[in-house]
Amino acid sequence: MTPKETGTVAYLAEPGRVEFREYPVPDPAPGEVVTTVERANVCGSELHIWRGNHPEVKEGSLGHEALCRVDALGEGVETDYAGEPVEEGDLVAPVYYLTCRRCSACQNGQFHLCENVYEYWSRSPEEPPHFHGTFGTHYVVHRDQYFYKVPDGIDPGIAAGANCALSQVIFGLDSTGVEYGDTVVIQGGGGLGLNAIAYANECGAETILIEGVDGRIERGREFGVDHVIDFREYDSVEARAKRVRALTDGVSADVGVEVAGAPEAFAEGIHLLRDGGRYLEMGNVTPGATTEFDPGLLTRKSIDVTSVVRYDPWYLHRALEFLEAQSDVYPYENLIDAEFDLRDVDDALRQSDAREVTRATLFPN
Ligand SMILES: [Zn+2]
Ligand SMILES: [Zn+2]
């Protein structure tokens, strides 16, 4: 390996403290792709780690959402994971975790639960090939890490986030089985919620958003939600459940999607659904945050609960195709509301944490 140039990595030295480190940009090992990062987005899970809330990860490389440009292809890499030929200069989106295809979860076909999923996540940049996180000038797509060519015409900030919220929402709603004619109630109008509105809509479903923040309600409407239940107005579970019934000819919703990230939202979900309804739990991701729950009602209503974390890696390809077809229909460009130089990543994290900005994108180069 002959170092050609150096690149910068944003490294979390301890919670709340980011340092910049310089490393030689490596030549790709067999199966790897060395890229230049065009855009990297700040996501809620970075904030979780940056604040020191993550139970295990307290330091390491930051960043997982990115749009990358291929600098060099390792031996054996001729196509992306959909078989499209790739060459230097192409724009690609990486799946942000590993699917090893060798562990027991992968053997069961549950690629999203791969036991080696975070093999490179938050790894110290001291370890070659150094560029393990997307908050850096360069990023190495490791061997076995899926990546896809990005179709022309997708806004770069949006393409950078396709590997997170949208891919997971499509995977989750497909796992739950949203069909034409369903009514889908979505609890929470953040990034996951807006993507859920768009995808449920494309599936031919009617959508109801439960939210209580003006800006989020406004964006929900921009994304074409059919009905909004403002929880400042409908301020109890009973009131919201009654409103859902009124909007569905007395039946209640076919499908519920929890993307509020509040334990109580999960407990509420079963009250919003019809007997035999389906429920997708995706927003609560912190073990130990508990709530009161009525399991007897769940049984009586025979509600099917599905929960998903991450997504099967080929869903990123579907997400990119969805964006290519639908980015004119939904105002995805409105989701990114702040741009920062990589050197100002501290400001990007701080302002995102303080909710002064909704979705920040970094320009590393
Ligand atoms: Zn993310
Ligand atoms: Zn695996």
TrEMBL record:
Keyword Oxidoreductase attached: yes
Entries under Gene3D superfamilies matching the protein: Medium-chain alcohol dehydrogenases, catalytic domain
Stretches assigned to the Enoyl reductase (ER) domain: 16-362
Domain of life: Archaea
Record field: transmembrane: none
Family matches, as Pfam families: ADH_N, ADH_zinc_N
SMART domains recorded: PKS_ER (SM00829)
SUPFAM superfamilies: GroES-like (SSF50129), NAD(P)-binding Rossmann-fold domains (SSF51735)
A GO BP entry: protein tetramerization
Oxidoreductase is among the record's keywords: yes
Keywords carried by this UniProt record: Metal-binding, Oxidoreductase, Zinc
GO MF entries: adenyl nucleotide binding; anion binding; metal ion binding; oxidoreductase activity, acting on the CH-OH group of donors, NAD or NADP as acceptor
Protein name: Zinc-binding dehydrogenase
Organism: Halomarina halobia
